Amino acid sequence: MTISSRAHYAIKAMLNLAFQMPNPVSLTSLAKKLDISLSYLEQIFALLRKNDLVKGVRGPGGGYVLGKPTEVITVSDIVSAIDINRKTAADFKGEPQSATLLAWGVLENKVQNHLDGITLAALQEETVARMNVTDSGVVAA
Q1: Burial, 22: exposed, middle or buried (Cβ in 10 Å; 0-12, 13-18, 19+)?
Q2: Beta strands, E only, 1-141
Q3: Tell me, what CATH number does 28's domain have?
Q4: CA 81 to CA 72: how far, in whole Å?
Q5: 41 or 136, higher pLDDT
Q6: In the predicted model, what is the mean pLDDT of the chain?
Q7: Ramachandran assignment for 140, one of left (phi > 0), alpha (psi -120 to 50 degrees), beta (any other)
Q8: Is residue 63, in this structure, part of any structural domain at all?
Q9: What would the pLDDT profile of 26-35 be if each residue is shown by its tens digit?
Q10: What total of structural domains would you count in the chain?
Q11: pLDDT in tens, 50-80
Q12: Alpha-carbon gap, residue 75 to 10, rounded angstroms
């Protein structure tokens, strides 16, 4: 399993929204912060919105906020929403199975299970903890 660059940016964007909660974040400011084009970010957010991971806030000061609490959004949810055309070993059913393809399927399952266990809340907590350690003069690992 690979995480595409589009999913990578989606994860970064979702973390950005998590740190800005409850304030909406405009796609223009987010595109600048992530150093990507606005149209590319709009494509990403269309998929995130379709999967109820973000919701739009209209009006002055509007933008996007998370569609669910950080405790329930996993990295796996984000990757699955973005990489909708990703082929997995399971997609090759009915074809002759090589040991390599079967092993790849086992690895994909392990990575998927790991990503299922990582929430935005957990990433936020660890980031804040590392920032506090760094701010106190201790170098973070």
Answers
A1: exposed
A2: 54-57, 63-66
A3: 1.10.10.10
A4: 15
A5: 41
A6: 86
A7: beta
A8: yes
A9: 999 999 999 9
A10: 1
A11: 999 999 999 888 999 999 999 999 999 999 9
A12: 10
Residue 130 lies in a domain: yes
| Digit-coded pLDDT (tens) for 92-117 | 555 656 888 778 778 888 888 888 89
Residues of the domain holding 52? 5-135
Long-range contacts of 86-95 (CB under 8 A, 24+ apart): 86/1, 86/4, 88/1
Reported as type and span, the H/E element at residue 81 is helix 75-82
What does the DSSP assignment read for 32-50?
HHHT--HHHHHHHHHHHHH
Tokens at 123, concatenated: 């990433």
Q: Does residue 140 form part of some domain?
A: no
Check: CB of residue 55 under 8 Å from CB of residue 25: no
Q: Is residue 118 part of a domain?
A: yes
Q: How far apart are CA 8 and CA 10, in angstroms?
A: 5
User: Which residues neighbour 24 within 8 Å (Cβ) at sequence distance 6 or greater?
Assistant: 57, 61, 62, 63, 64, 65
Residue with tokens 């304030």: 23
Count Cβ atoms below 10 Å from residue 26 Cβ, excluding itself: 14
